[in-house]
Amino acid sequence: MEFRSREICNSVRIVKLVWCFVLLFLSLFVQPFSLHGQSAPKTSRKVMVRVQPDYPDFFKNGHFQGRVVAEATVLPNGNVSSIEVKSGNPMFAEFASKALMKWKYAPGPEKTVEEVTFNFSSTPD
Protein backbone atom coordinates (compact mmCIF):
# COMPACT_ATOMS: atom_id res chain seq x y z
CA MET A 1 0.00 0.00 0.00
CA GLU A 2 2.79 2.43 0.88
CA PHE A 3 4.57 1.66 -2.39
CA ARG A 4 1.40 2.45 -4.37
CA SER A 5 1.00 5.77 -2.51
CA ARG A 6 4.58 6.79 -3.38
CA GLU A 7 4.04 5.84 -6.98
CA ILE A 8 0.95 8.08 -7.17
CA CYS A 9 2.79 10.99 -5.56
CA ASN A 10 5.65 10.64 -8.03
CA SER A 11 3.19 10.52 -10.93
CA VAL A 12 1.49 13.69 -9.71
CA ARG A 13 4.86 15.45 -9.44
CA ILE A 14 5.78 14.41 -12.97
CA VAL A 15 2.44 15.66 -14.35
CA LYS A 16 2.91 19.01 -12.55
CA LEU A 17 6.45 19.31 -13.88
CA VAL A 18 5.33 18.55 -17.44
CA TRP A 19 2.58 21.19 -17.19
CA CYS A 20 5.11 23.75 -15.95
CA PHE A 21 7.34 23.09 -18.96
CA VAL A 22 4.38 23.25 -21.35
CA LEU A 23 3.25 26.60 -19.92
CA LEU A 24 6.81 27.93 -20.00
CA PHE A 25 7.19 26.82 -23.62
CA LEU A 26 3.88 28.40 -24.65
CA SER A 27 4.72 31.66 -22.90
CA LEU A 28 7.68 32.09 -25.26
CA PHE A 29 5.32 32.35 -28.22
CA VAL A 30 2.57 34.48 -26.75
CA GLN A 31 3.10 38.24 -26.58
CA PRO A 32 2.04 39.71 -23.28
CA PHE A 33 -0.73 42.28 -23.20
CA SER A 34 0.40 45.85 -22.69
CA LEU A 35 -1.21 47.77 -19.87
CA HIS A 36 -0.12 51.05 -21.44
CA GLY A 37 -1.58 50.53 -24.89
CA GLN A 38 0.20 50.20 -28.18
CA SER A 39 3.40 52.09 -28.82
CA ALA A 40 3.72 54.34 -31.83
CA PRO A 41 5.10 52.73 -35.00
CA LYS A 42 8.71 53.33 -35.99
CA THR A 43 8.90 55.34 -39.19
CA SER A 44 11.16 57.75 -40.98
CA ARG A 45 9.60 61.20 -40.94
CA LYS A 46 11.42 64.11 -42.54
CA VAL A 47 13.37 66.30 -40.12
CA MET A 48 12.47 69.97 -40.61
CA VAL A 49 14.67 71.44 -37.82
CA ARG A 50 17.82 69.59 -36.72
CA VAL A 51 19.80 70.81 -33.69
CA GLN A 52 23.32 69.48 -33.18
CA PRO A 53 24.15 68.43 -29.60
CA ASP A 54 26.65 70.37 -27.52
CA TYR A 55 30.11 68.82 -27.36
CA PRO A 56 31.80 70.44 -24.35
CA ASP A 57 35.44 71.50 -24.63
CA PHE A 58 36.52 69.23 -21.78
CA PHE A 59 35.33 66.24 -23.85
CA LYS A 60 37.01 67.59 -27.00
CA ASN A 61 40.27 68.28 -25.19
CA GLY A 62 40.23 64.80 -23.69
CA HIS A 63 39.56 63.30 -27.15
CA PHE A 64 36.48 61.51 -25.85
CA GLN A 65 34.38 59.85 -28.51
CA GLY A 66 31.02 58.20 -28.29
CA ARG A 67 27.77 57.32 -29.92
CA VAL A 68 24.22 57.62 -28.66
CA VAL A 69 21.19 55.88 -30.16
CA ALA A 70 17.87 57.34 -29.05
CA GLU A 71 14.21 57.01 -29.95
CA ALA A 72 12.14 60.17 -30.17
CA THR A 73 8.37 59.99 -29.82
CA VAL A 74 7.03 62.53 -32.32
CA LEU A 75 3.52 63.97 -32.09
CA PRO A 76 1.35 64.41 -35.21
CA ASN A 77 2.29 68.13 -35.29
CA GLY A 78 6.00 67.22 -35.57
CA ASN A 79 7.08 68.13 -32.03
CA VAL A 80 9.20 65.68 -30.04
CA SER A 81 7.32 64.72 -26.88
CA SER A 82 9.76 62.29 -25.27
CA ILE A 83 13.16 60.67 -25.70
CA GLU A 84 14.35 57.20 -24.77
CA VAL A 85 18.10 56.56 -24.96
CA LYS A 86 18.49 53.01 -26.29
CA SER A 87 22.27 52.66 -26.21
CA GLY A 88 25.51 54.52 -26.24
CA ASN A 89 27.95 56.38 -24.11
CA PRO A 90 26.22 57.70 -20.97
CA MET A 91 28.54 60.76 -20.90
CA PHE A 92 26.92 61.99 -24.11
CA ALA A 93 23.32 60.81 -23.58
CA GLU A 94 22.21 64.02 -21.83
CA PHE A 95 23.62 66.22 -24.61
CA ALA A 96 21.97 64.09 -27.30
CA SER A 97 18.61 64.13 -25.49
CA LYS A 98 18.63 67.92 -25.04
CA ALA A 99 19.37 68.46 -28.73
CA LEU A 100 16.78 65.91 -29.89
CA MET A 101 14.03 67.57 -27.84
CA LYS A 102 14.56 70.68 -30.02
CA TRP A 103 14.15 68.81 -33.32
CA LYS A 104 11.04 69.44 -35.40
CA TYR A 105 9.65 66.83 -37.78
CA ALA A 106 7.26 67.14 -40.70
CA PRO A 107 3.63 66.81 -39.58
CA GLY A 108 2.14 63.33 -39.88
CA PRO A 109 -1.19 61.56 -39.42
CA GLU A 110 -0.26 59.98 -36.07
CA LYS A 111 2.31 59.81 -33.30
CA THR A 112 5.49 57.97 -34.40
CA VAL A 113 8.80 56.82 -32.98
CA GLU A 114 11.94 57.94 -34.79
CA GLU A 115 15.37 56.43 -34.19
CA VAL A 116 18.28 58.87 -34.21
CA THR A 117 22.02 58.22 -33.86
CA PHE A 118 24.44 60.89 -32.66
CA ASN A 119 28.20 60.47 -33.10
CA PHE A 120 30.48 62.52 -30.87
CA SER A 121 34.09 62.92 -31.99
CA SER A 122 36.86 65.42 -31.28
CA THR A 123 37.91 65.28 -34.94
CA PRO A 124 35.75 66.86 -37.66
CA ASP A 125 33.90 64.41 -39.91
Uncertain stretches: 19-40
The backbone outline, from C-alpha atoms, is elongated
Structural class: alpha+beta
Q: Please write the string of helix (H) and strand (E) elements.
A: HEHEEHEE
- Helix residue percentage: 25-40%
Count of the separate structural domains: 2
CATH architecture verdict of the largest domain: 2-Layer Sandwich
User: Radius of gyration from the CA trace?
Assistant: 26 Å
Question: And the CATH topology of the largest domain?
Answer: TolA/TonB C-terminal domain
Question: What fraction strand?
Answer: 25-35%
Distinct helical segment count: 3
Can you tell me the CATH class of the largest domain?
Alpha Beta
Mean pLDDT: 76
Termini separation comes to: 83 Å
Largest sheet: 3 strands, antiparallel
What's this, in brief?
It contains three helices and five strands, in the order αβαββαββ. The protein has a three-stranded antiparallel beta sheet. It has a two-stranded antiparallel ribbon with strand order 1-4. A hairpin with a 5-residue loop joins strand 2 and strand 3.
Structure description:
The chain is of the alpha+beta class and 125 residues long. The chain folds into 2 domains: 32 residues; 74 residues, TolA/TonB C-terminal domain (2-Layer Sandwich). It is built from 3 helices and 5 strands; from the N terminus they run αβαββαββ. It has a 3-stranded antiparallel β-sheet with strand order 3-2-5. The chain has a two-stranded antiparallel ribbon with strand order 1-4. It is elongated, with a radius of gyration of 26 Å. About 18% of the residues have low confidence.
